Amino acid sequence: MSTRKKWLYRILGGIVGLLAVLLLIAGFAPVKMDPIVPPEQYGAGSSSVQPSYTGLLREFPPENAPATNPTTPEKAELGRLLFFDPILSANNDIACATCHHPDYGFSDGLVKAVGAGGIGVGPERSGGITLSRNTPTLWNVGYNKALFWDGRGNSLEDQSTTPITHADEMAANPAELVAKLKGIPEYERLFAAAFPSTDPITMQNVQYALAAFQRTLVSNNSPFDQYAAGQIDALTAQQRRGLDLFRSGATRCFECHAAPTFATETFRVVGVPSDDLGRGGVVPDAAAGAFKVPTLRNIALTAPYMHNGAFTTLEEVMEFYAEGGGRAHGFSGVDTFVQGFDFTDQEKADMVAFLYALTDESGRPAVPATVPSGLPVVPSLNNPAQADIALHNSAISSGGQPGSRAPLTLTVGPGQSIQSVVDQARPGDTILVPYGLYHERVVIDLNNITLHGVPNAAGEYPILDGQGRLPDGVVASGNNFEIAYLHIRHYTSNGVLVEGVKGVHFHHLITEDTGIYGVYPVQSTDVLIEFVSASKVMDAAIYAGQCENVIVRDSIAFDSVLGIELENTVNGEVYRNHTYNNSLGIFIVVLPNLTSKVSTQTKVYDNLTENNNLANFARPDMTVSFVPPGLGILLAGADNAEVYNNTVRNNKTTGIAVFSLTAAFDPTELDVGPNPENNYIYNNQYENNGYDPDPFVKNMGIPTGDILWDVSGFGNVFDDPTAQGNFPPILPKSSWPTPIQRIYFRLLNFVVSAVG
After folding, report:
1. Which of 407, 414, 456 is nearest to 431 (CA)?
2. Which of 249, 505, 522, 715 is an S-S bond match for 494, by CB 3.0 to 4.6 Å?
3. pLDDT band at 9; cut points 50, 70, 90
């Protein structure tokens, strides 16, 4: 053999060997997947406390204390003295309490805080450097995971470094501060008691003591809390009306300001006029103008409001949200929960009255008469809000729950409203609604309540009719709630809204033309929806969001944008349902910026989903407006779902689609894993899908038919041999060895990337 041929064989052998190595790498190297969310961080389901009298009593989240700094009485007392002592500042003239004054809800009453060089305390403080933002309250700060308006701090221990050392604020030098403290015998004794060691006075221990003190600032016994615990006379009638509006589908305040903290660990763009980037100035891929959702506890004490103090009164805040936040002023990117709503002057007053009911200063610490440094302590201040709080919180609680009795069956009589009978009920009661026409909104907070309609001789259900002006037919926040045999129609937001509870049973209901959702359980656990007919809504006819353990079965959903939706839900089952003439028949999805961060362990089987070709009529500002019509079943970002034994036919865009969220959302703004992973599609029956794809899909330049996968997310397998016109033409099968699946997945993504 010639030398030339030998070299040619060697080169070919090298190429083959290189290809073999590349195949081995492609087959055995792990595929990059979305970060795994541990079950304890799912965030789905109810946090309702049981046993309880109402479903409004919720578990507080874990404190943010690290294992390195457990709270002790000695640390908290030291932190209290340091908090009120101006010695922490360079010029001995600013204490933490200067800006976080207890008489102003641990805020200062200013539009924006005044730092170094300022004179005075509270709203009268002036001169010096005006800082860029409003001073946030410290009440319940021990539950926060993210600190500052922009969330740049992630622990109370580290947070205090910024105000203590920043040149515009207290401007202290840590070494000089420690030296000052070491020169004071009383601090030497207090630090030694709190931090037994050879060198107890350190900057770290200053931070630890301040953090321990701030974790004692707990507000959890407001009139609302007393009402939630079963003292039903703890709220005035006006405050109860305000509570009803607060958690209604019209205002959706509860979506961001969730009990019990009345805050969430999320960042939202509401569109307050400002050039402040907020979260966008801290995290490069965060939305500009997004700010942390603040607590509403003790909100009446902390005016003015918003990150820049833009609004002087709570009434102004209500008006801002009613007009749709910044949308009314051309502000782009406003959060989907800020939609705007119509309300009367009375309803505005009711909402504000409820916010006053979130006031509780029973855990307020005493202001020390003196501090170890001997420097002046902040004086007491007169906050005029206290008089308004006393006026609004005028209900006189009996101090306990109503007396117990055996469960009763209560029947709505002639001329009575349903609500008037609900107000007489006790946990365990059944409320019967005789056949008739009722124009009202029904609110139920008690646990173990059954609300049943009584059909007429023809089998027709009693009708709740909102006349196109009331927001919700029924709102319930009681555990173990059952509702059945009612026809609910012509509401502007929801047919039935159930929020934050355990044990929900919807059955034998008709909802029609109820605004955004038909039946709407959210952040609830153990939900059963069956024998429901829901139609004519601009989002989901049958919906379960941020829930755990959900069954939707034997129901019909039609003439809506979405037929059935499970959003950010864990352990759901959707079976034996019929969805037709929607834009999308069945939707399993994980969406960003919600408390729950996953959609996982869902089964969709034995459903008939057909002719879902209705033009999407959602408002352009609604998240669901991105859904193209003509879809039978869509998995968007969902993981570990099984879709099997369904009949999917006559859906013009495609039968079953599996997509990444990046098809509809900016990847830089997602706080959830966007890719659908480890989903199994099998044994479905298909007929005449993908015959006229919507332009949104058609313009992607890919063929459509029974199955459409955008090749995102590893671990998706398809065992549907009868499916036709699929994309990609060859779909990964469960029988393929994992290395082959990895090779094919990488090849598909390479081709898609190359084609663009």
Report:
1. 407
2. 249
3. very low
39 in helix, strand or coil? helix
* pTM for this predicted structure: 0.89
CB 100 within 8 Å of CB 114: no
Residues in CB range of 144: below 8 A, 6 or more apart: 64, 263, 265
Closest by Cα among 19, 15, 34, 21 to 597? 34
Surface-to-core class of residue 17, CB atoms within 10 Å of its CB (0-12 exposed, 13-18 middle, 19+ buried): exposed
Per-residue pLDDT, 505? 98
Q: Which residues, at least 6 apart from 34, have a Cβ–Cβ distance to it below 8 Å?
A: 639, 673, 674, 675, 677, 713
Q: How far apart are CA 475 and CA 517, in angstroms?
A: 12
CB 592 within 8 A of CB 569: no
The distance in angstroms from the start CA to the end CA of the chain is: 46
Number of neighbouring beta carbons within 10 Å of residue 13:
10
Pair of tokens at residue 197: 């060691």
The residue among 597, 599, 477, 578 whose CA lies nearest residue 534 is 578
Q: What percent of the chain has pLDDT over 70?
A: 96
Mapped onto helix, strand or coil, the DSSP state of residue 496 is strand
What are the structural domains of the chain?
73-218+364-385 (1.10.760.10), 223-356 (1.10.760.10)
pLDDT at 13 over 90: no
Q: Is the pLDDT of residue 18 over 60?
A: no
